[in-house]
Amino acid sequence: MLRITEGGFTPNRAAVLGGNILFLINLLLVTAQLYKVVSKKGEVSGVGKVIAAYLSVYFIWAIIVTFIFPLIFGFK
Fold first, then answer.
1. Residue 32, CB-side half-sphere exposure with 13 Å CA sphere
2. What value does the mean pLDDT take over residues 16-32?
3. What residue segments make up the domains of the chain, in order of their start?
């Protein structure tokens, strides 16, 4: 967090921070599904479903970074 405040809040830092948060959430969801598989409370196909469902979240983030960030940060 110190590096973000040190040089200012830039579009690149915002995009990477948002991406890292999305990665963390995705890893937590996959970990939870894998735990269910190991504890025999779920099936392996559930892991694939979580991964596939989260692809849409990455797509939405890419759209936000591509089309909304220029409006927010004033790119021409």
1. 9
2. 96
3. 24-76
Say how many C-beta atoms besides its own lie within 10 A of residue 33's C-beta: 20
The pTM assigned to this predicted structure is 0.82
Closest Cα partner for 61 from 17, 27, 29? 17
pLDDT given at position 28: 97
Confidence band for 54, pLDDT divided at 50, 70 and 90? very high
Q: Of the candidates 35, 12, 15, which has an alpha carbon nearest to the alpha carbon of residue 23?
A: 15
